[in-house]
Amino acid sequence: MPVLENPRHEIFAREIAKGASQREAYRAAGYEGENEDAVDASASRLLTDARVALRIQEIRAAAAKRAEITIERTLLELAKIGYADIRKAVRWGEEVAVKDADGNEAISNGVAMLDSVEIDDDTAAAIAEVAQTRDGIKIKFHDKLGALEKIGKHLGMFVDRHEHSGKDGGPIETRELSPLEAARRIAFAWAKGERELEGK
Predict the structure, then answer these.
(1) What is the value of pTM for the model shown?
(2) Half-sphere exposure of 13 (CA within 13 A, CB side)
(3) Same domain, 17 and 81
(4) Nearby residues of 138 by Cβ (< 8 Å), 6 or more positions away
(5) Lower CB density within 10 Å: C or N end of the chain?
(6) In the chain, which stretches have pLDDT less than 70?
(7) Residue 121's domain spans which residues?
(8) Distance (Å, whole) CA 124 – CA 143
């Protein structure tokens, strides 16, 4: 899809694709509103414009391709965190050589981190932080459960359930519309949308 004909729409799409909020993108495109609610409503409507939405997807896809971001690569990185084994970075329960703050080596039955050259790449990717403290070395891994949850959601293993109810918790009321009434409502909504877009 080429650049949008309306330059304000193009700026809006680019700002959204970069991660700006709808309000920020709307203002960056040179639009104004009477108040914040009006700005938010207009930005939201602009975001539902099919050409703008398609342009945003196109810009994001191009950026992801340039950065070589793919679903597969993202899942592989999450898997490194989700399936990390702390035993590949830390030893404990055996006599290990540890160094104190002065660099003196001693034998301890405590915990010792493996040397960085001994840690494989996947385990290293799962480590969020390594710090030298008064009590020794502290190691922190990325959120294992969070990574597994994200993988599970992507694979459809977890389904969020939402219940909806009608007024005062009762059943949702429905009624049949005649074809004529349905067509009238669609035409009304269409005309209203066109009027609002013309006002931009």
Answers:
(1) 0.44
(2) 24
(3) no
(4) 129, 130, 131, 132
(5) N
(6) 1, 94-101, 106-110, 160, 162, 199-200
(7) 76-146
(8) 14
